[in-house]
Design brief:
This protein has two domains: 130 residues, 3-Layer(aba) Sandwich (Rossmann fold); 139 residues, Rossmann fold. The chain has 13 helices and eleven strands. The chain has a six-stranded parallel β-sheet. The radius of gyration is 20 Å and the shape is globular.
Length: 320
């Protein structure tokens, strides 16, 4: 690849990890008990890999962690009951339902069972609604990471993010509930002009028409190499959320939704796969877990002053 700056998401993640470690220490000093629980149903390889990464990261940051592992043929009612058990566990401040789920279990059934205060990915209808109203309780980790990376890159290149977004067009490819739609809302909250595309745009033959208008392109379609150099204009900043396993000369390898070589020839900057959005997403989920623990603290007036100042910076709004 040549031409584009390759944004080092792993380095950004290490910097963010230091911030989250400070936030964790401040929260614990104030009496909070951060704890992350995941629910893993079946043996999907990508979900298992994500669970292992979160386990290691939680251990590194000193956050309590537990995984509820259920068989692929578990009944939906039992899966819902497992979520309910975690809702009631005071040692758990954040709950993540790992995807994909078996076909016989409806995502919405598990999402609705989540305690909204422990729903660190904002998939419960209440939290999704708060995000849409620009009053998020938690900002979902992957779209939050996209904009964290963008903000860091813009600042490093001498630009004010607020001014940049206000005069820019952001195109989001993919309309999933956990990435595409939240990214749309986050772009709007930054006063950008935002365009949403998905598979229907592609089938209608209009995807290139919209993606070539992007100053910032966020691609979360789950289609390897969907976007190539012909889909982008010169100088675009491209954020690749896709993680796709494809055959390679030495077995399976991970690629994104961008055809990286051809996009890099035209882009100002882009995120690689692996090593781009993913590492930041992992850390941001732990940040939300710490923020969720803060909800249980009660009045801000009861906090020590120094720790209170740190906690005030956590990415959480105390919505009803």
């Amino acid at each position: 690849m040549s031409g584009a700056t390759i944004i080092d998401g792993a380095r950004y993640a290490e910097d963010l990890k230091l911030e989250v470690a400070d936030e964790m220490a401040a929260a614990v000093a104030c009496g909070a008990r951060p704890g992350l629980a995941t629910v893993l149903i079946g043996g999907d390889a990508s979900a298992q890999a994500y669970e292992r990464r979160l386990r290691r990261l939680a251990d590194e940051l000193g956050c309590r962690y537990v995984c509820e592992l259920l068989p692929a043929d578990v009944e939906e009612a039992e899966a819902v009951a497992t979520v309910g058990k975690l809702d009631a566990d005071p040692r758990v401040s954040g709950i993540l339902v790992l995807r994909p789920l078996p076909d016989h279990i409806a995502e919405v059934a598990l999402y609705r069972a989540l305690d909204p205060l422990k729903d660190v990915e904002s998939v419960h209808p209440v939290n999704a609604g708060l995000l849409a109203l620009d009053r998020p309780r938690y900002v979902p980790s992957t779209p939050a990471s996209c904009f964290h990376i963008l903000d860091r890159y813009l600042l490093a290149s001498g630009r004010d993010p607020a001014g940049f977004y206000a005069r820019s067009t952001i195109v989001v490819v993919g309309r999933s509930a956990n990435v595409g739609k939240p990214a749309l809302h986050l772009g709007l909250s930054r006063h950008a002009t935002v365009i949403s595309c998905d598979e229907h745009t592609h089938r209608a033959g209009r995807l290139r028409e919209y993606t070539r208008a992007a100053d910032v392109l966020i691609v979360a379609a789950g289609v390897p190499g969907l976007i190539d150099g012909g889909h982008v204009r010169d100088g675009v900043i491209a954020i690749d959320v896709g993680i796709n396993a494809v055959p390679g000369p030495n077995g399976m390898r991970l690629v994104g939704d961008l055809d990286q070589a051809s996009v890099a020839a035209r882009a100002e900057a882009l995120t690689p796969v692996p090593g781009g959005v993913g590492p930041v997403t992992d850390v941001w989920l732990l940040r939300n877990t710490v923020a969720a623990a803060v909800h249980d603290l009660g009045s801000d007036d009861a906090r020590p002053t120094a720790a209170g100042r740190r906690l005030a910076a956590l990415p959480v709004r105390r919505s009803a």
